[in-house]
Design brief:
Shape: elongated
Number of strands: 14
Order of helices and strands: HEHEHHEHEHEHEHEHEHHEHHEHEHEEHE
Number of helices: 16
Strand order of the largest sheet: 1-2-10-7-8-9
Largest sheet: 6 strands, mixed
Distance between the termini: 63 Å
Helix content: 40-55%
Length: 409
């Protein structure tokens, strides 16, 4: 199954998604649908998590890549395929090519996380590191395709890719037939376009809501303008949806089938990732956590039952460590403050005793005794504390004030 141009006929397009679902049988997993009591209590209706982070290769990308490569003509397969990606698409193309017996070359940025590079190689692809940003890597892959005749496999801007991703929508309808809202992260738009197409063709009453990071939100201005608009230098921790321009093919489908595209902050993304880890016991990358971030940011805006698509779980351990710290800070789990104490023996020990009674865990202490702003008998202490949340932060600050300390900030 393959078609070269998007067909506006809904039924034909739905048939293509159903054909992709048959093609993917035994290749892609029907990933789990997990309920979330915490999110359900916030939204006031059932919330389910569609766990594409547990898909083979760790994301939904295998679906579209397999359908695209399986649809190549014999002479195209013989020429091999080439792709450019910092992670998820690379692994999807590598595994799909291996399963179909097609030679794959994948260009990745020089700074791509080592676990993603290693996984792509282990799936059998020839990995070439080129460029420091994805645009440079993409240009190298396209140049390689022109020079060698290899077929370039775009991460989102092709109908076969979109119908492959649309199989996620068919699974949602099967696993949660009562669904009324589906929330999905949006980068180039392939996943949202596919889900919107599949779901709206069967259940036009279901709302499909896309989510982008505030620093990489190309869809809102593009939808307002009626055509794809470029966002220069997109910035976000959610590299899976850090795309500066919507794809032409998915844009037309998103405009028709997606009801709304919302944006979320970096704080919301890190808090969502932390929630997935703590409450759902799921490792999710920032892009995959974007639907949860939208629910946390405005929980009453979603009609339930809600399905949030966790699109991927490929996160570099070092990045995960930083994001978790950021998420804990955003969630009020860290408290930083400065205060003045009397500069005498035992003063710091007395302060720490107050914090012990308040049950605050001290992470770091900076004790300044020589500063022109300080009096002769004063010292300034900067504290970094681990707390139990915003209410506990207030309790710790109140305990310090009650003990006679002046909290400066």
């Amino acid at each position: 199954m393959s078609f070269r141009t998007p067909d506006p006929l809904h039924r034909l397009m739905l048939d293509d998604v159903r054909g992709a679902q048959k093609m993917l049988s035994g290749v892609a997993r029907m990933t789990a649908m997990e309920g979330s009591r915490h999110l359900s209590s916030l939204v006031g209706a059932p919330v389910h998590l569609k766990c594409e982070n547990l898909q083979r290769t760790g994301s939904f990308k295998l679906r579209g890549a397999y359908v695209r490569i399986a649809g190549l003509r014999p002479e195209e397969r013989a020429a091999g395929v080439v792709a450019a990606s910092a992670g998820n698409h690379a692994q999807g193309v590598a595994l799909a090519s291996k399963l179909l017996g097609v030679r794959a070359t994948v260009f990745m940025p020089v700074g791509a996380p080592l676990p993603k590079v290693a996984a792509t190689r282990e799936y059998g692809a020839d990995v070439r590191l080129h460029g420091h940003v994805v645009d440079e890597t993409l240009a190298a892959a396209e140049r390689y395709a022109r020079e060698t005749g290899a077929v370039f496999i775009h991460p989102f801007d092709h109908p076969d890719i979109i119908v492959g991703q649309g199989t996620v929508g068919l699974e949602i309808l099967e696993q949660c037939p009562e669904v009324r809202t589906i929330v999905v992260g949006v980068g180039g738009g392939g996943l949202a376009a596919g889900i919107g197409l599949a779901v709206k063709s069967v259940r036009p009453d279901v709302k499909v809501i896309g989510v982008q990071a505030e620093g990489a939100a190309a869809y809102p201005p593009s939808l307002a303008a009626g055509h794809p608009v470029v966002v220069e230098s997109p910035v976000t921790m959610a590299d899976g949806i850090k795309v500066g321009r919507p794809g032409d093919v998915p844009f037309a489908l998103v405009r028709e089938y997606v009801d709304e595209v919302r944006t979320v902050s970096e704080d919301a993304l890190s808090s969502a990732l932390l929630l997935c880890l703590e409450r759902a016991k799921l490792v999710v990358e920032p892009a995959g956590a974007s639907p949860v971030a939208a629910l946390l940011s405005d929980p009453k805006a979603f009609r339930g039952p809600v399905v949030a698509v966790l699109s991927g779980g490929n996160v570099d351990p070092l990045l995960l460590q930083r994001i978790l710290r950021h998420g804990m800070a955003a969630g009020g789990r860290y408290l930083s403050l400065r205060l003045r104490v009397t500069d005498r023996p035992g003063a710091l020990a007395t302060l720490l005793a107050v914090l012990t009674v308040a049950d605050a865990n001290v992470l770091d202490v900076s004790h300044v005794r020589t500063d022109p702003r300080l009096g002769l008998t004063e010292a300034e202490v900067e504290l970094h504390l681990e707390t139990k949340g915003p209410e506990h932060c207030r309790e710790v600050a109140d305990a310090l004030r009650d003990a006679g300390y002046t909290v400066l900030g």
